[in-house]
């Protein structure tokens, strides 16, 4: 049995992860940790792996606390920057434990990101549109940021220059955020869960890649895969695709 602690256990994702872990015959939910609880060997209750779905401003400290307690961490919380990833990677290596951070655990989203990177060199233009529930605290989504970075890297590797865009005046930011030169647009709408469209354009044609998570159960197979396999890859792994050998 793999013993699992869930951090952010009362949240939308954390509560769904608790249900999924409890339903899995090979996993044992040993701790539900929430804001205000200490995060130490006592509260982690002998866990082998902690799963963090909290908030961008607390997740790095949570991961360091897990590594100090010598347990692996699976992280779905978004908002990670390169410096925080570097610090956590270094700590994981010195602690001899593993950390897996993925902006999206849904198979449709993981594949959409891969397909977007594959398609990017064949299209002059690419833009990312992410659409989420209005209770989400960060924008753009971690998935959209990762998608844009993947598109930009694929374009750079193919020797492509800037995308065509004649915009000279955009005082209100209507052309969206730029992530490595790729425009990213965020919609927050009651009724939505988590959705993304990647638009790729050429003269006379368009490719649309779309992923929809209608329900948070969509993330659970990926989360449970990560819990079961996180310890197999030493140090820091970013992205479920890398953990699954798709990258
Ligand atoms: N990687 C993925 O597949 C997915 C990632 N997410 C990300 O997961 C994160 C959480 O999303 P939701 O569950 O919708 O948010 P939520 O707001 O429903 O849940 C967050 C929970 O964390 C708790 N929390 C806050 N600070 C804490 C601390 N220091 N220690 C322990 N618990 C703490 C809050 O009280 C709350 O219960 C967000 O960053 C979101 O972008 C969401 C869905 C899928
Ligand atoms: O907050 C959410 O809901 C989601 N957050 C993740 C993100 O920022 O990409 C994953 C998914 O889009 C749902």
Automatic annotation (TrEMBL):
PROSITE patterns in the record: DAPB (PS01298)
Q: What is its main location?
A: cytoplasm
The opening ranks of the lineage are: Bacteria, Bacillati, Actinomycetota, Actinomycetes, Actinomycetales
This protein's source sits in the domain of life called: Bacteria
The UniProt keywords, alphabetically, are: Amino-acid biosynthesis, Cytoplasm, Diaminopimelate biosynthesis, Lysine biosynthesis, NAD, NADP, Oxidoreductase
Organism field: Schaalia naturae
Name the active site residues: 132 (proton donor/acceptor), 136 (proton donor)
Which family is this sequence assigned to? Belongs to the DapB family.
Q: What does this protein do?
A: Catalyzes the conversion of 4-hydroxy-tetrahydrodipicolinate (HTPA) to tetrahydrodipicolinate.
According to its UniProt record, where is this protein located?
A: Cytoplasm
Dihydrodipicolinate reductase N-terminal domain boundaries:
2-105
Q: Which reaction does it catalyse?
A: (S)-2,3,4,5-tetrahydrodipicolinate + NADP(+) + H2O = (2S,4S)-4-hydroxy-2,3,4,5-tetrahydrodipicolinate + NADPH + H(+); (S)-2,3,4,5-tetrahydrodipicolinate + NAD(+) + H2O = (2S,4S)-4-hydroxy-2,3,4,5-tetrahydrodipicolinate + NADH + H(+)
Q: Where does NAD(+) bind?
A: 8-13, 40, 76-78, 102-105
One Pfam family, short name please?
DapB_C
Output one GO MF annotation.
4-hydroxy-tetrahydrodipicolinate reductase
| Enzyme class, first EC level, given as a word | oxidoreductase
Spell out the subunit comment. Homotetramer.
Q: What is this protein called?
A: 4-hydroxy-tetrahydrodipicolinate reductase
Pathway per its UniProt entry is: Amino-acid biosynthesis; L-lysine biosynthesis via DAP pathway; (S)-tetrahydrodipicolinate from L-aspartate: step 4/4
Task: Identify the residues that bind (S)-2,3,4,5-tetrahydrodipicolinate.
Answer: 133, 142-143
List residues of the Dihydrodipicolinate reductase C-terminal domain: 109-240
Enzyme Commission designation: 1.17.1.8
């Amino acid at each position: 049995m793999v013993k699992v602690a869930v951090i952010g256990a009362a949240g939308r994702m954390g509560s769904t992860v608790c249900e999924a872990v409890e339903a899995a015959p090979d996993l044992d939910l040993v701790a539900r940790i929430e804001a205000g609880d200490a995060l130490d060997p006592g509260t982690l209750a002998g866990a082998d792996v902690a799963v963090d779905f909290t908030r961008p401003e607390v997740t790095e400290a949570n991961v360091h606390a897990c590594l100090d307690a010598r347990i692996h961490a699976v992280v779905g919380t978004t908002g990670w920057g390169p410096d925080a990833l570097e610090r956590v990677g270094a700590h994981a290596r010195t602690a001899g434990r593993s950390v897996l951070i993925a902006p999206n655990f849904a198979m449709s989203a993981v594949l959409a990101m891969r397909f977007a990177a594959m398609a990017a060199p064949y299209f002059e233009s690419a833009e990312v549109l992410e659409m989420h529930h209005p209770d989400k605290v960060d924008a753009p989504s971690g998935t959209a940021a990762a998608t844009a970075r993947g598109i930009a890297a694929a374009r750079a590797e193919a020797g492509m220059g800037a995308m065509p865009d004649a915009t000279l005046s955009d005082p209100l930011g209507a052309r969206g955020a730029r992530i490595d030169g790729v425009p990213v647009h965020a919609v927050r709408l009651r009724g939505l869960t988590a959705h993304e469209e990647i638009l790729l354009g050429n003269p006379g044609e368009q490719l649309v890649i779309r992923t929809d998570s209608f329900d948070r159960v969509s993330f659970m197979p990926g989360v449970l895969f990560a819990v079961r396999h996180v310890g197999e890859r030493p140090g820091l792994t970013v992205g479920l695709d890398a953990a699954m050998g798709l990258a």
